[in-house]
Structure formats: C-alpha cells, structure tokens
Amino acid sequence: MSEEKSAVPAWEQRFRAARVSLPDWAEDAPDRALYVSNATGTYEVYAWDRATGTHRQVTDRPNGTTDAELAPDGESVWWFDDHDGDEFGVWRRQSFAGGPDEEAVPGLAASYSAGLALGRDGTVVVGRSTDEDGTTLHLWRPGAAAAVEIYRHEEYGGVGDLSHDSALLAIDHTEHGDAMHSAIRVVRLADGATVAELDEVTGRDEPRGVACLGFAPVEGDTRLLVAHQRTGRWEPMIWDVATGAETALPLRDEQGRELPGDVSAQWRPGAAELLVEHEYEARSELFSYALADGRLTRLETPRGTVGGATARPDGTVEYLWSSAAEPSAVRSTAGAVVLRAPGAVPPGSVPVEDVWVDGPGGRVHALVQRPAGAGDGPHPTVFEIHGGPTHHDSDSFAAGPAAWLDHGFAVVRVNYRGSTGYGQAWTDALRERVGLIELEDIAAVREWAVASGLADPQRLVLTGGSWGGYLTLLGLGVQPDAWALGVAAVPVADYHTAYADEMEALKSLDRTLFGGTPEEVPERFTASSPLTYVDRVRVPVYISAGVNDPRCPIRQIENYVERLERLGTPHEVYRYDAGHGSLVVEERIKQLRLEMDFVRRHLGGGGTA
User: Fold this and answer.
1) What pTM did the predictor assign?
2) d(CA 596, CA 606)
3) Count of other CB atoms within 10 angstroms of residue 577
4) In three state form, how does the secondary structure of 75-127 look?
C-alpha cells in the first residue's frame, strides 16, 4: 500500500471504496443489466452489457441518482429526475447505448413517485403522489399523445405489477386508511374494470396486510404471487386473479421444519419454481421452491445478510451479500463474485454478536459490536438506532458503525418493537404509543449494556437517522438521565409541523400510526413529539438536516433548534443542500467527521476523528 493510501484512515477508506447494487436485468435481453454505484464519488446509475463486459455511466447529477428501471427489451433506461434530493420529479428515458435524455411520459407534471411498470409491448404505468391529488396512476402506450389517468384515491397507493401480456395491472393500495396493511386490486387495462380484490384489512379487528410480489412471467398467465400476513408473519402464496383460487405454499426445509421469521419470494424464469428469501433474527438465506412437488432446496450462501437476489435464465441465482465484518459483493450460486466495484476492497470490520434482553413487550434482539483490542469494557458506547420505522438492523456491512468501532466505541443496535423480521405483532406494536414504546425497548437494552460491563454509563451516545434521529431527540427528553450526548440526523423534531410539511406518503403513515391527523388527535401527536420534551434535555445535541428533505422537513427541525437556543441547551446544527440524506460520498464523510468531532469534544475518549 502506498504512503498516501496508508495515511487515509480505515473508516474513510470504507466510505470512499466503490460499491455496487444488485444488477437488474432486462427480461427479454438478459445480457443487459442496470445497477447503481458510487464509483465516481456520487451514487449514479450504470448500464452493463454483460455480453461485451462494458459498463457505462447513465446519469451524472450533482446530488446523485438511484431510482432507475430497465425496459424489458433492454433498449432503454428509465430514471427518476428530482431536484437536489427532494424526491419530487419526473421519469426520464435514455437509450441503453447512450445518448440524450428525454421526458419519458409527456404531459405528466412532477410528483413523488408511486411506482413504475414497463410492459414488454411498450405499455407504461406511472404512479404519482401529490398533496393535492393523493395517488394517481397513469397509463401510456407507444404513440399516444398523452397518458390517461386510470386510478385516483386520496390515500396512498402505488403500482404493483403488470401481467406478462400487459393486460392486467395489480395495484397496491390503502384506500381503507391503514398505511401499514395494504390491499390489492387487479384491473383490466383494456376497459379499467376491476378483475379481482384482495383485502385483509376492511372489517377485521386484526388487519392483515397483503402486497404484490409479481405476476407469473408467462404469456396469458393470471397467477399473481402475493405476500400475506394471515399467519402473523409475512409469507407468500399464489393467487389466480382470474379464478380467485389461492394456493398456499407450505415452506418447510429438508428436515420438514417450517421456516421461522418472514419469508418472501419471486418467480424464477419459466414460473415452475420460486426463489425464496428467508429473513430471521437479523440474517437471511435463499431457497428454491419447486411448485410441482413443494420441494424446498436451500441455496448455499454465507452467514450474514442477503441484500437482494435475482434468478437468472441460466438457472443461477445472483445475490448481494455482506456481513458486519465483510463488505458487500454481488455473488452467484455458481460460486463466483459476479460484480465488484473497481478499486480497492474496503477494510473489513468487527463481527456482530447477538444479545437478547427481556423487555416490557417481550425479548428484544440487539446486535452488539466491541472495539477490537480494547478489552472487555466498559467502553464508550454508541446506541445507533435504525430508521424506517418498519425496518430492522441486520448482520450486514455498514461503514458508519465500523467508523465508531475504529475510534474505540462499542456499537449497539436495537430491533425495538416496530421493527420488521420478528412477526406482525412485533411490528404492529409501534401503533400503541408512537416513539415511546420503542424507547422502552432501547432502555431495556441500555440497562443490559451497563449491567453487563459493556457500556460506560457516563459515555453513552444516542444516535440515529430519520426515525432513528426522531427516537434520538425523543429519547433525550423522555430519558434525560440515560444519555451523555445525542446525535440526530434528518430527524422528526416537531411532529405537528412535520405532518404539515411532509410528503403525502408519510402523512398517510402518520395517520395510521396515530389514528388520525394532528387536528383529530392532537394529544397523541403532542405526547410523541420531541418538541414536547425539549425543556428536559440536559445534554449537548447535534443535529444534521437536509434543506430539501420531504420526509423530515427542515422547518420542524428549525422549530426545535430555536427552542434549544432559547433554553440555552448546548447544541450544534449542520444543514446541507440535499434531501433525506446525501448520495455524495465526500458529503457523507464530512457529516460523520462532524459528528465524531462533536462527540470527542463533549465526551472525551474514544479516539479522535
């Protein structure tokens, strides 16, 4: 390694190292693929001709691009063009071989995206979401002067999938008003008539969600693969939308045991088998399921997390894999690394260990990493809280936690109630007392961390981004004696104002979580708002915010900061010109360096940034 390279800290090398997403391939041209990479220092879209081995950068924008799709014939790349990360924009199209961009569907005004479906015959369905119109879906066919609106509803919804022959469209919707449990409607595009409905929410005391996983990739096939929660967890079934027939999928391993945890699936080419993705206790694995005899065969993957998988026409499966200790790469069940970004592989990190702690709502799963060579503890400790909120931390590689470990901190991540991957009841518990219930689980793990000798109680940092940033600010006020510092990125800080300014999809989620709007249930929003408890915050606070953020808008953060100023609470704020996070590597490094410097100055120890 050169002197210049060795002078770059390992944590910065991890951020700067190029990485790639799982490539998506064109249905009728499988040698043409699309992926996202930060090879230039900004996340952009790339076209990959696998037959020739050539890679071409498709997009080039100051704040990056990640939302893109490849047409089934492989001839064009569609990408979503927003303004500086505000997520409000239009779809553009570029030839796979390169050339100028053009507006993909003429006449559609900018909006938040609610999905996109591209048919093999050129049929296009564009999903849009705006504050004024709610969700609208628009049909466009080649040669048409303009797109035609085929669906409208004030509640959030989106494009599910087009059938293989573009005759049917599946729509995921929340017309019943429950954004955590969607329903499915299938319509015939020729006349807009409803063909079938699958609603597990309306009229039920315990709503169960369903979600579209895709039509069978066979001409004229009316089978739709669906995810459902009928057994209290996510698992797949097949629904023939023409006959109404439902086929359960008894997923049992070679020893006859039912797979625990959440299960998803996708059709393999030819529709005779499914590729099954199994997620359990922060790790995941892959199986192949034969529809003819119900045989479930495990596909060999290393222990860790599969961040996505795709079945190729040649029978192989490609998947994006990583663990907390090992960086990601696109691998194949054939045994090779299929795609790795150019340049040096980033340094690895510390393996994760599992901890289960008794909490008020049941056993809480936490992922713990100890700084290498620092002894048993107690350590300065970062509680890094995940966002979502319906998401979870996993045994996967992440540059942020690895950086804290390099600086002598232990890292604890908590899959609190509201997290996915532990059954529907665990996820749905989020609705009981928004924010406060998650903090109870975090507090239980904090108590374990201190009692076990892992964490120094005087040097505990509460941090997170998005919903994790929200829980950080809420935790500093609700649990003022528990934390030494708070570091919140793009948080909800003032829930009343956040609701007024956020994108419609988030309004829909908040109405579900709280049981109404701030006007209808003001006491619930107040009880769960960090601003309510700001006068109880006793420790220094660091906040970073994107000025174009449509999810956690800047005005509500400024309200919180203004209160900190009036109270004289030590705080620092960093505002950057992007949306809900940044796609620019140097900006991400700058943000983490600022956070580490803040912690070092106020906490001491744990190394330097």
Assistant:
1) 0.96
2) 10
3) 13
4) CEEEEEEECCCCCEEEEEEEECCCCCCEECCCCCCCEEEEEEEECCCCCEEEE
